[in-house]
Amino acid sequence: MRIAVAGGTGAIGTLVVEKLKSAGHEPVVLARSVGCDLVNRNAVKQWLVDCQSVIDVSGVSTTSSAASMRYFTQSTANLVSVGRESGVQNHVALSIIGAAEVDSSYYAGKAVQERMLLMLPGGYTLLRTTQFHEFIGQNIKRLGAGPVQMAPKMRMQPIAGIEVAAALVDLAEAPAQGVVQDLAGPQEEYAPDLFAKYLQAQGRSPKMVEVPVPGPMGKAMRDGGLLPGGSARLGHETFDAWLARQ
Could you list the residue range(s) of the whole structural domain that residue 11 is in? Predict the structure, then answer.
C-alpha cells in the first residue's frame, strides 16, 4: 500500500515510516522539511496522489491554545478533504488520552482535531495513547538549565513509541474503524522519577526541581487526568526496559 505519513520526520513519524517499509508498504512523508506544509492545501494535494491511507502523527511546537487550534484545524481539514478527493479510504489520527477533556494549551488543538473527526460519517480511525517514553528525553533537553533540571509534576503511564507505531500501521492496513481502544504503557510512573533515571543513565546528576505546571493541563498532569481508563489496551515495554535499549 501507498500510505502517507503526516509528520513523518518526527519522533513517532520516523518509527511509523520504518515500520511501513519493513511491512512492505510505500510510505510517503508529509512534512515541512521535505516540502509539504500541512496547512497549505495545494501542497497536501500534490503529496496524497494514489495514497490508500493517511497516518497523521503531525504536531506543532506551542503551548498556545489558539496556535495549536489553528494548526490542527487547518492541517486536519486539508488532510481529510484532500484525502477524500484523492481516494484515501482511511485517515488514521493519533491523539492523546485525556486531551479532549483538558482542552487547553497544546491539548486544545488535539481536542479540535478529535471533534472534527468525530463529526465525519466515516473514513477515519482515531487512536488515543498516553505519552511516549521518548517524551522524557525531549523534555529534559527543553527543561534543563545548567546544574538544575526541572521536571513537571506529572502522573503518567508512558508507552514505547515503537509500539505506538506498530499499532498505527496495523490500523492503516485495515478498513476505517472510527474510535478504537485506547493504548497505554504497562504501568503508572511519576515523571520526575523518570527524568532522574534518564539522566543517571547518561552519567548525570543535576539538582532536580519538581515543577507544578499551571492551568487545566497541569491539574490533569498532577491529578491523573492523563492516565488511561480500565478499558485501555496496555503495551509491554516498561520505561526501564526501553531506557536499557537506548
Answer: 2-245
